[in-house]
UniProtKB/TrEMBL annotation:
<comment type="pathway">
    <text>Protein modification; protein glycosylation.</text>
</comment>
<feature type="transmembrane region" description="Helical">
    <location>
        <begin position="203"/>
        <end position="224"/>
    </location>
</feature>
<feature type="transmembrane region" description="Helical">
    <location>
        <begin position="276"/>
        <end position="297"/>
    </location>
</feature>
<dbReference type="GO" id="GO:0003975">
    <property type="term" value="F:UDP-N-acetylglucosamine-dolichyl-phosphate N-acetylglucosaminephosphotransferase activity"/>
</dbReference>
<keyword id="KW-0328">Glycosyltransferase</keyword>
<feature type="transmembrane region" description="Helical">
    <location>
        <begin position="113"/>
        <end position="134"/>
    </location>
</feature>
<comment type="similarity">
    <text>Belongs to the glycosyltransferase 4 family.</text>
</comment>
<dbReference type="GO" id="GO:0016757">
    <property type="term" value="F:glycosyltransferase activity"/>
</dbReference>
<keyword id="KW-1133">Transmembrane helix</keyword>
<feature type="transmembrane region" description="Helical">
    <location>
        <begin position="36"/>
        <end position="56"/>
    </location>
</feature>
<dbReference type="GO" id="GO:0006488">
    <property type="term" value="P:dolichol-linked oligosaccharide biosynthetic process"/>
</dbReference>
<comment type="function">
    <text>UDP-N-acetylglucosamine--dolichyl-phosphate N-acetylglucosaminephosphotransferase that operates in the biosynthetic pathway of dolichol-linked oligosaccharides, the glycan precursors employed in protein asparagine (N)-glycosylation. The assembly of dolichol-linked oligosaccharides begins on the cytosolic side of the endoplasmic reticulum membrane and finishes in its lumen. The sequential addition of sugars to dolichol pyrophosphate produces dolichol-linked oligosaccharides containing fourteen sugars, including two GlcNAcs, nine mannoses and three glucoses.</text>
</comment>
<protein>
    <recommendedName>
        <fullName>UDP-N-acetylglucosamine--dolichyl-phosphate N-acetylglucosaminephosphotransferase</fullName>
        <ecNumber>2.7.8.15</ecNumber>
    </recommendedName>
</protein>
<feature type="transmembrane region" description="Helical">
    <location>
        <begin position="171"/>
        <end position="191"/>
    </location>
</feature>
<keyword id="KW-0256">Endoplasmic reticulum</keyword>
<feature type="transmembrane region" description="Helical">
    <location>
        <begin position="391"/>
        <end position="413"/>
    </location>
</feature>
<dbReference type="GO" id="GO:0005789">
    <property type="term" value="C:endoplasmic reticulum membrane"/>
</dbReference>
Length: 418
C-alpha cells in the first residue's frame, strides 16, 4: 500500500526543463533483484501437481495435451519477459513521479524510499501478448470458441486500461465499483454459452425442475461476478505481496480444478470449456509470479489498481467461460468474507478512512490491528501483533486452505448436491 504523489504540472515549461524533470533522481536506489528463489519454490508447489495430473494421472487426448503444453511454454516465456521488463518500466514511472511511500514502514529508512507504482501495467501487457499469440497455435479461423476468446481478451484489456486510468487519476470509490461492469460488456455481448443452472438435488422437489434456464438473469449474474472479482482483489490489499500472492494461489487452484475436470469427463464440449479456462489462467499465473518476485516483502514495486482490476477480471472471465462460477466463488472465500466485513464502511454506514491499514510501530517493526473492517485488521486482532511479512503469509495460507476446502466440498458432495 502506498501514499501517492501525483505528477507535478509541467505546463508552460521549456523543453530542456521538461527533459530534466523526466530524469530519475540519482539519489533513487536501484530496483532490488527479484526474489527468484522464493518464486521457484512456490512454483514447484503449484506446477508439480498440475503436470502430474496432466501427463501421468489422467488419460488426456494428445492434441489437447499438446495445446496445454504450448500454453505452458508460452506462459513461461511471459514470466521471463515480465521479470526483465518490470525494472525497465519502473524507471519510466519514477520519471513521471508515479511512486509511493510504504505506509507500513513509515518511520523507518525503508519508509522513505520511493517505490514505483502501477507496475501491473507490465503484467497486463505481457499477458495480452501471450494470450493473443496463442490463438495461432490452437484456434482455426472457423473455431466456435474464437469469438468468446477474443471477447474475453477485450474485457481484460478494457479493465487494464480502466485500472491504469484509476492509478493516474485516483477515481472515487463510487466510480470504481461500476467500472468492471463496463469492461465486462464485450464478454457479455459475445457470450453464446448456456444460461441454465443445475438445481441442487435436495431442492429439485421444491423448484420442480432439475435444470432452470435463467435467460438474461444469468448474464446479469455474470456481470455482477465480474464486478465482485475485480473489486474484491482491490480491497483485500495493503500488505507487500498480498494482491499478487492471493492471485497466484487462486490461479493455481483454478488451474488444478480445470485439469481435474478435463480428466474426469468424457464430454468433448465440457473438456474444451475447461481447456479454454487453462489457456487464460496459465499466463495469469506465471506473469503474477513474476510480479510477486518484486512485490514480495520488502516490496520494490507496487502493483497498483491496474493489476488488481486486471487480475480480478481475468479470473472472472476464466470462471464464466469455464462454467464453474460457483467453484470460483468458493476459491474467493477470503475475499467474500473481507467484502462482507467491509460493507458497513464501504457503504458509509460507519466512517471509512482512505487507508484502512493496521498501525505500524517503527520501534518493534510490528503491526497492530485497528477497528477498520478488513480481514487484515481482523487477523491482527484475533492472532495478535506480528510483522507485515508474517501477516501476509498467514493470509495466503488462509487463502490456500479455502481453496483446499473447496476441493474437499466438491469431492464429498459429488453425487448428492448435484
Amino acid at each position: 500500500m502506498a501514499t501517492r504523489r501525483k505528477s507535478s504540472s509541467t505546463a508552460g515549461k521549456p523543453e530542456e526543463i521538461l527533459s530534466e524533470d523526466r530524469k530519475a533522481s540519482p539519489d533513487d536506489p536501484p530496483l532490488a533483484s527479484p526474489k527468484l528463489g522464493l518464486i521457484l519454490s512456490a512454483s514447484a508447489l503449484f506446477f508439480a501437481p498440475f503436470f502430474y495430473l496432466l501427463f501421468y494421472h489422467y488419460q488426456i487426448e494428445p492434441e489437447l495435451r499438446r495445446s496445454i503444453a504450448i500454453s505452458a511454454a508460452m506462459s513461461f516465456g511471459g514470466f521471463v519477459v515480465a521479470v526483465r521488463m518490470i525494472p525497465v518500466a519502473a524507471r519510466y514511472v519514477l520519471r513521471r513521479n508515479m511512486f509511493g511511500y510504504d505506509i507500513n514502514k513509515k518511520g523507518t529508512p525503508q519508509g522513505a524510499i520511493k517505490v514505483p507504482e502501477s507496475l501491473g501495467i507490465v503484467i497486463g501487457i505481457v499477458y495480452l501478448v501471450i494470450a493473443i499469440l496463442f490463438q495461432h497455435f490452437n484456434f482455426t479461423s472457423d473455431s466456435s470458441w474464437l469469438v468468446e476468446y477474443n471477447a474475453a481478451l477485450a474485457s481484460i484489456c478494457f479493465m487494464i486500461l480502466l485500472g491504469f486510468v484509476d492509478d493516474v487519476l485516483d477515481i472515487p470509490w463510487r466510480i470504481k465499483l461500476v467500472l468492471p461492469s463496463f469492461a465486462a460488456l464485450p464478454l457479455l455481448m459475445a457470450y453464446a454459452g448456456h444460461t441454465t443452472i443445475i438445481i441442487p438435488k435436495p431442492l429439485v422437489q421444491y423448484v420442480g425442475v432439475a435444470v432452470l434456464d435463467l435467460g438474461w438473469i444469468y448474464k446479469l449474474y455474470m456481470g455482477m461476478l465480474a464486478v465482485f472479482c475485480t473489486n474484491s482483489i482491490n480491497i483485500h490489499a495493503g500488505l507487500n505481496g498480498l494482491e499478487a500472492g492471493q492471485t497466484v494461489v487462486i490461479s493455481a487452484a483454478i488451474l488444478i480444478h480445470n485439469i481435474m475436470q478435463i480428466g474426469a469427463s468424457a464430454d468433448p464440449e465440457y473438456k474444451q470449456a475447461h481447456a479454454f479456462s487453462i489457456y487464460l489462467v496459465l499466463p495469469l499465473l506465471t506473469t503474477s509470479l513474476a510480479l510477486l518476485s518484486y512485490n514480495w516483502y520488502p516490496s520494490s514495486v507496487f502493483v497498483g489498481d491496474t493489476y488488481t482490476y486486471f487480475a480480478g477480471m481475468a479470473m472472472a472471465v476464466v470462471g464464466i467461460l469455464g462454467h464453474f462460477s460457483e467453484t470460483l466463488l468458493l476459491f474467493f472465500l477470503p475475499q467474500v468474507l473481507n467484502f462482507l466485513y467491509s460493507c458497513p464502511q464501504l457503504f458509509k454506514i460507519i466512517p471509512c478512512p482512505r487507508h484502512r491499514l493496521p498501525r505500524f510501530d517503527p520501534q518493534t517493526g510490528l503491526l497492530t490491528g485497528t477497528k477498520d473492517g478488513t480481514l487484515v485488521n481482523l487477523f491482527l486482532r484475533l492472532f495478535g501483533r506480528c510483522s507485515e511479512k508474517s501477516l501476509c503469509i498467514r493470509l495466503l495460507i488462509f487463502q490456500a486452505l479455502s481453496c483446499l476446502l473447496c476441493f474437499g466440498l466438491r469431492h464429498f458432495l459429488a453425487g448428492w448436491y448435484k
